[in-house]
Write a structure and sequence with these properties.
By secondary structure, this protein is of the alpha/beta class. The chain contains 17 helices and 18 strands. The radius of gyration is 23 Å and the shape is globular. It starts with 7 loop residues before the first strand and ends in a 10-residue tail after the last helix. Bound molecules: 6-O-phosphono-beta-D-fructofuranose. 6-O-phosphono-beta-D-fructofuranose (F6P) binds next to strand 1.
Length: about 500
């Protein structure tokens, strides 16, 4: 088999590569590893075998040439600007995202978006097939790549394939709205193991297999007989395996003198309030930012809280800004912040410090250390890693977490102050309860939550996932002559795809 370039025993595929381009003063771009937990999770798994990461580099146009970042081989996938619009902004984030998040905003259905989603999923499958060594393990991530498992299996039946969904999987009544529901389920069932955040998500998927496709499920497995191609039916295991954070890394960073003094500076620059509340979210309508602001505004209105003794720091990271629903949300949030600040500001003290920026990891950790009350109030969230990050950063057992019951994190962090974000009165009471609970009790709660996250950190998650994938029921197939021929075809198709994609756009670094 002639495969251009190196091949690997472990291939991770996600919509984005875990690197960002950082441009220096001379305009030179270099790649830097993005701070996400997923890469640190994979470090343990990658240490004892070679690994590649297949993903989009974040800009439309020709993909940069593959490169090593440390010991991880980055294999970029190209997206044209039309594909960014139709596969990423369109089908992934304006069709699937709302359906998978309780239809908080209406989903948009376009057949040409679906076609582009399929094309891009094909490209990812081909790229994976290109870098996977015979018999390798492939770990596909998230809702942007739901067709990839079956596409990879069709090309490379010798591979062991897993998929993990970082977001919720919807109840069958919502999933059924998708005109492409059958293809999505069959795409996923190309995997040997499907991992979800919550038992309820795994249950929703199994129900969709039964109710929409008439498949039979037994416990946590689905028996699946593909329409064509493979002769025998396969058994696919489906279960909950909730993601986590790098507890030890965050704890260590939170105890450095640099972070501690930065945390003190942050408080001082806000006028040393008695109560510093913090919200950290992508600017996304699922995060419940408007509900949180409404509750806070009413607490100021009824004088339960009053600046300067209280202030709220709301970090809102820009996200998917070309999708309408995100633009509308941003306008609403910014209008509300303006109204609250206009009404309740006293000279020298601002009720809400609204920060629409990205911050480096160290600065985020300093914010977590500085905050007395952390507000995590999504309307629906697969997990919410911010909640687990906050807990990981509170080595001092200080602080309090207000947490929505509609997050995956709620299923693990029972000692948080729990609220239903739709119940504004309830959110207000929960915030006041978090503020007024005696320190001993707050420390007890924080200690219990820290133990939970320490015992179930992201490294353990990754190794549990890979073990579950390795022991999933179906047996890997040997690479046949036909699939070797197919693989060669894939290489040719990849080269053609690359030539065809957006040649007008510039390369970003090589
Ligand atoms: O977990 C959901 C998710 O879409 C991830 O895939 C991604 O890392 C994150 O949210 C941010 O989204 P985006 O890649 O659209 O900026």
């Amino acid at each position: 088999m002639t495969v251009a370039g190196p091949t690997f025993d472990l291939v991770v595929a996600a919509n984005r590569l875990p690197v960002d381009v950082v441009v220096d003063a001379h305009g030179e771009g270099t790649w830097q590893r993005s701070p996400g937990g997923l890469v640190s999770a994979m470090e343990g798994a990658m240490a004892d075998r070679g690994a590649a990461w297949v993903g989009w580099a974040g800009e439309p146009g020709l993909a940069p040439a593959p490169f090593y970042q440390g010991n991880l081989f980055m294999h970029p996938v190209s997206l044209t600007s039309v594909e960014v619009e139709e596969y990423y902004e369109g089908f992934s984030n304006d069709t699937l995202w709302p359906i998978y998040h309780d239809v908080i905003v209406q989903a948009t259905f376009h057949r040409h978006w679906w076609n582009t989603y399929r094309t891009v999923n094909h490209r990812f499958a081909h790229a994976i097939a290109e870098v996977a060594a015979p018999g390798a393990t492939v770990w596909v991530h998230d809702y942007q790549l739901q067709l990839v498992p079956a596409m990879v299996r069709a090309i490379r039946p010798d591979l062991r394939i897993g998929w993990f969904n970082h977001i919720p999987f919807p109840p069958v009544e919502l999933f059924a709205q998708l005109p492409w529901r059958r293809a999505l389920v069959e795409g996923l069932l190309g995997a040997d193991f499907l991992g979800f955040q919550r038992t309820a998500d795994a249950g929703n998927f199994l129900r969709s297999c039964r109710r929409l496709l008439g498949m039979s499920t037994r416990g946590d497995t689905v028996a699946f007989t593909p329409a064509g191609g493979e002769p025998a039916s396969r058994t696919v295991r489906v279960s909950a395996i909730p993601i986590s954070v790098d507890f030890r890394g965050l704890t260590a960073l939170a105890s450095t003198s640099k972070v501690l003094s930065r945390a003190a500076d942050i408080r001082a620059s806000l006028g040393d309030p008695e109560i510093l509340m913090l919200g950290v979210d992508r600017l996304d309508y699922t995060k419940g930012i408007r509900h949180r602001l409404k509750a806070y505004g009413e607490l100021l209105q009824d004088k339960s809280l009053a600046p300067p003794s209280v202030t709220l720091m709301q970090v809102a990271m820009p996200s998917r800004e070309r999708v309408d629903a995100y633009r509308v949300l941003r306008d609403e949030v910014e209008r509300t912040v303006g109204q609250i600040n206009g009404e309740f500001e006293v000279l020298g003290s601002t009720p809400i410090h609204y920060l629409r920026h990205f911050y480096p990891r160290e600065e985020m950790v300093a914010m977590f250390v500085a905050a007395d009350i952390m507000l995590v109030t999504p309307l629906r969230d697969g997990m919410n890693l911010v909640a687990k990050e906050y807990v990981s950063c509170r080595n001092d057992l200080g602080g309090a977490l207000v947490l929505s019951e509609f997050t995956g994190a709620w299923h693990e962090l029972h000692q948080a102050f729990i609220c239903n974000p739709h119940d504004i009165e309830g959110v207000k009471q929960t915030i006041m309860q978090a503020i007024n609970t005696p320190e001993d009790e707050r420390r007890r709660r924080m200690k219990a939550m820290r133990k939970r996250v320490a015992d179930h950190d992201v490294q353990r998650w990754a190794s549990n996932y890979l073990e579950a994938l390795a022991s999933a029921p179906s047996k890997p197939h040997r690479l046949t002559r036909a699939s070797t021929r197919e693989l060669r075809g894939v290489e040719r198709a990849n080269r053609a795809n690359l030539r065809a994609s957006d040649t007008a756009s510039e390369r970003i670094g090589t």
